[in-house]
Amino acid sequence: MSENALYEELMRQLSAVGSVRRDLGRIVPFGCSDGAATVLTLLGRHGAMRIGQLTELLGVNPSATSRHASHLAMLGWVDRTLDPADQRSRIVHLTPEGHEQLAELSDRRSQELAKRLTNWRDKDLHQLAHLLSRLRADFDDPGTGQHAYKAPSEDAHRARPPAA
Amino acid sequence: MSENALYEELMRQLSAVGSVRRDLGRIVPFGCSDGAATVLTLLGRHGAMRIGQLTELLGVNPSATSRHASHLAMLGWVDRTLDPADQRSRIVHLTPEGHEQLAELSDRRSQELAKRLTNWRDKDLHQLAHLLSRLRADFDDPGTGQHAYKAPSEDAHRARPPAA
DNA sequence: TATTGTTATACTCTATAACTATA
DNA sequence: TATAGTTATAGAGTATAACAATA
Fold first, then answer.
1. For B63-79, how does the pLDDT look when each residue is reduced to its tens digit (9 = 90+)?
2. Span CA (A49) to C1' (D22), Å
3. Three-class SS of residue A93?
4. Where are the alpha helices (DSSP H) in A47-121?
5. Reported pTM
6. Residue B4, domain member (yes or no)
7. Is strand D within 7 Å of residue B22 (CB)?
8. For the residues B87-116, what does the mean pLDDT come to?
9. Is residue A124 part of a domain?
């Protein structure tokens, strides 16, 4: 069972990389928490969506998502409009100011990463992102060998929702 | 600057993988927190060491490390002996019971990973661990292109300190 | 009756700052 | 005076459970 060594090593690195996340998480728009900032980036990447979808992407409890969305709404960076298809849900979407804040946020975090990962090639960055994506997909749903990794689009850096 | 898309994708995946970490983090010995469990695994992997070294490996503030160590000491799973070379420091090391708890913890977490990552090859696991290690090393110290990744040893799964 | 969100509450983790003891 | 660690405190994140509104 020395197989375990590989799993243990992965767990340690998964744990240790938390410090990188925390460092990046300190780069936030004024008045915005890291959790709310994450919601902002998800809306920019995937477009407007309901709390439930955000919750799934975040991999957290709906209560956390709800609070982050409220926070962003209070800042005026998102609006929550009733879903015509299901009045229980509201669709969360970025406001113009939300777009601005997100663009600045993305730039600042990207610059920080670029500064620190000077010796990383695109290939490495992509591969790590890909493996992480696959890890989460398989972990959440061990059944399928496939997972829905989608390479970042050419437009992703604009932080605009894809034809929301 | 569509370069940013790669960084943004990496950030998103780094953030999203937190849910995997939280899931694994719920597997802990009774009475032990995830933070304390992490200290346990570090002691198992690297052997007895001072709070300062643990702090560096954890990538957190010394105060957090101190509290986890206290917690473990209270459980009787580690001892803290004065460092003969510097009386300000104490060396944290696993007790026999700490070893037992760690072994069980490692087994349980590994089994969980094995169950969920059935379609992962050793090569994939190793590569992801490697990239994560490199990410943290380069992020913390962008100067050097080298980093101190050490492949898991054959004995790592025994969770014994290497000739502590 | 089941589902989507929201809110209140509790627990854990981390950072900051003040403090003790030793180098 | 500088450093290693500890403790108290505060801020942020998530999960649980109870609740409201709609399907």
1. 999 999 999 999 999 99
2. 18
3. strand
4. 51-58, 62-75, 96-116
5. 0.87
6. no
7. yes
8. 97
9. yes
